[in-house]
Amino acid sequence: YTAKSGRNTAVIFDEAALARRLEENQLSLALIVAVDRNEFVVHYQPKVNLLTGEPLGFEALVRWRHPNLGLLAPGRFLPLMEGPHLIRGMTRSVASIVGRDLRAWKDAGLVPGPIAINLPEALLVGEDGYEMLAQVIRENGLDWHDFAVEVTEDVFLNRNADHILETVTRFREHGLSVSLDDFGTGFASLVHLRDFPFDELKIDRSFVADIGTDTRSEQIVRAMIDLSRNLGKRCVAEGIETDMQRRFLVNAGCEIGQGYFFAKPQPAEVASERLPKGLVAAEPSMSAAARHI
Ligand code: C2E
Ligand code: MG
Ligand code: MG
Ligand code: MG
């Protein structure tokens, strides 16, 4: 509806926007108790060998089982988490679920490969993230290299970038792999790429989505693959949805990927069905053969 404001101009109230704000406010409130009520759920998406489809590990992706709205994707609620407190609680929740699932997989004789956890800045500036993982590992009798960590380029903008670097270095000293996530969308400069100690570079899916339709994106993808290779990093392509994209990436020299083409993020029970007993998660070699398939 409309309302008269001063000087005879009509202000239009956008009812849809208003409803959205209201819903966001309600979600923000519900988030405050979501941790205590154990409403967070973890789905797993495999990182696969692009040549064979063999799973090399998984990424843990949080979902929120809202009491009325059902399963919500992180895009719906992460932006509503103000302050580091909620995000810390949620991440702790995710890590302990992953710890339990890993234990169960191992007890069943399955070797799932490292499970990558997305660690936000809030957990990297201090000891929190490190202590959190150390505790989960202790409690479940796991090893550091059962886990991997994904950080986004935002960490470089943090005024505590030095502390983040320390945490990351500490993780790596324990043999845990660190990925730079969503590469190409944030603020990583080449200096960061040169100086930041990471193991894996993840090409953001916005570039992968353009393969086959936008030659500029294709050239950027090729350059990113070459760059990671020349820096001695693993390269992982996100968001592969078609076989054409898969083939392009293999030809360009990328050997690992994730995407709906292989598997969507799924609950632990479903994700583990793909794991043969005793499968050893192989470290994919940078084989020359793979580049020419
Ligand atoms: P991300 O870490 O870059 O994760 C990849 C996202 O791409 C996931 O979205 C995944 O479901 C989606 N995806 C994978 N393959 C495909 C594909 O083939 N097509 C399309 N269209 N999408 C694909 P999701 O699960 O909604 O997560 C979104 C973002 O939320 C993640 O991006 C990550 O930044 C954040 N996130 C997820 N879980 C956590 C968590 O436990 N902690 C933190 N701090 N952030 C998380
Ligand atoms: Mg990620
Ligand atoms: Mg990503
Ligand atoms: Mg992404």
Automatic annotation (TrEMBL):
Native source organism of the sequence: Rhizobium giardinii
The answer to whether the entry has keyword Membrane is yes
This protein's source sits in the domain of life called: Bacteria
Q: Sorted alphabetically, which keywords does the UniProt record give?
A: Membrane, Transmembrane, Transmembrane helix
Domain named EAL: which ranges? 24-279
Q: Does the keyword Acyltransferase apply?
A: no
One MF term in GO for this entry? cyclic-guanylate-specific phosphodiesterase activity
Q: What is this protein called?
A: Diguanylate cyclase (GGDEF)-like protein
The shown range, given as first to last of full length, is 402 to 694 of 699
